[in-house]
Write a structure and sequence with these properties.
alpha+beta; eight-stranded mixed sheet; 16 strands; 2 domains; 12 helices; Aminopeptidase
């Protein structure tokens, strides 16, 4: 049964109906929108029910006034401290195009309003594969175009670029947005087999090494705790609110992708976040923890080695990294390491009573070979 929690003219938003929605979500499972928006496609009705249960608290069914399910909308990857989230929309592909656009736009505007007025969110982004003309048009009418990242969306046997759209509380409008016309993107037939990352990568000044407990024991853990508790290190990492001590420092460092090593000391790390193996895309964070090792070119070399390994091993096709707009040194490192700025996310980071923008950077297998 559906409940009219938020009503519009042609559709309303309802909590998920676990009696009938799992089967319909399964039918949407072949819908490419589920996979490139980093949701898991269901394989059975029971699997569909389990997947909907995982996202139910932050997801609505979009229902027409004749009580037919027309889609879903929700949020993922929410960081409440920064009042930012990613939002997704899934529309029944069996509806005619006009209905998909009408119901999708109205339902999504109702949902965005809910995010700002009830969830107290501020910065929201959504994304779509460049060949999905329906979803791109809905986002184009409801949000502001942020930019396009190379690759990152796997659809029907090809990898496509990914359009990013954004909105903040102050730019939201129920009348929609005005954006430039966006054209469908080119698809690339790339190897879909997952690659393996090497244990170590040696550069001229530093070495990247996969985490190893024996090596960690040989390092000064207290000093590493001190680095992470340093305000100048924690703030650019987005970890200023975290208290670090030996136990969680060890867990954190053992969980990163590579350590940055210099003279057998751990001086920093590079790490993949939110790895999406289906679309072969991930976010990246990095840090040179020892401030005595700053401004020596170690970060640039680390990112160059890291990207070379990711792309040449076929581990990823696309890499994304956000840099807070006050971190000018890190943005220079991005440019030196061939990460290209593709857009600016407004108000993506909150600190000291103020919102800051995020510079969104990208590199890919295609860009590397141009």
């Amino acid at each position: 049964m559906y409940y009219k929690k938020i009503e519009g003219k042609h559709v309303y938003l309802s909590p998920i109906d676990f009696k009938q929605d799992p089967e319909k979500y399964l039918n949407f499972g072949t819908n490419r929108q589920i996979r490139y928006q980093e949701l898991e496609a269901p394989t059975s009705i029971e699997d569909s029910r389990e997947k909907l249960e995982k996202i139910a608290e932050d997801t609505f069914s979009i229902v027409s006034k004749d009580n037919e399910l027309v889609g879903f909308c929700g949020i993922t990857r929410t960081i409440a401290f920064n009042q930012r989230t990613d939002a997704f929309l899934i529309i029944n592909p069996n509806l005619d195009i006009e209905k998909q656009l009408q119901y999708g736009e109205e339902g999504y505007l109702l949902f965005l309003k809910y995010c700002y007025e009830f969830l107290n969110l501020n910065s929201i982004i959504s994304k779509n594969a460049t060949q999905d003309e329906v979803l791109r048009e809905i986002y184009r009418q409801t949000m502001k175009y942020l930019g396009t990242a190379s690759l990152g969306s796997y659809v029907d046997g090809k990898y496509y670029d990914t359009d990013y759209f954004q909105l903040t509380k102050k730019t939201f409008s129920l009348t929609g947005q005005q954006n430039k016309i966006l054209l469908p993107g080119k698809g690339y037939e790339l190897d879909t087999k997952p690659g393996q990352l090497p244990t170590s990568l040696k550069g001229q000044k530093i070495e990247l090494l996969r985490p190893n407990e024996e090596i960690l024991k040989e390092n000064d853990l207290e000093k590493l705790v001190e680095y992470l508790n340093d305000y100048d290190i924690a703030v650019p990492l987005g970890e200023a609110k975290q208290n670090w001590f030996e136990k969680n420092t060890k867990e954190y460092l053992m969980g990163v992708t590579y350590w940055v090593m210099r003279d057998e000391r751990i001086i920093g790390f590079v790490n993949l976040l939110r790895e999406d193996t289906h679309n072969k895309v991930a976010d990246m964070e990095y840090a040179i923890l020892d401030k005595n090792e700053h401004n020596k070119g170690y970060a640039t070399e680390a990112l160059e080695l890291f990207q070379k390994a990711l792309f040449e091993s076929n581990y990823l096709n696309s890499l994304i990294s956000g840099v807070f707009d006050f971190n000018h040194a890190s943005q220079r490192v991005m440019q030196k390491a061939n990460m290209e700025l593709f857009g600016i996310r407004s108000d993506g980071y909150y600190m000291d009573g103020k919102f800051y923008d995020m510079f969104m950077n990208n590199n890919s297998t295609v860009k590397r070979h141009k």
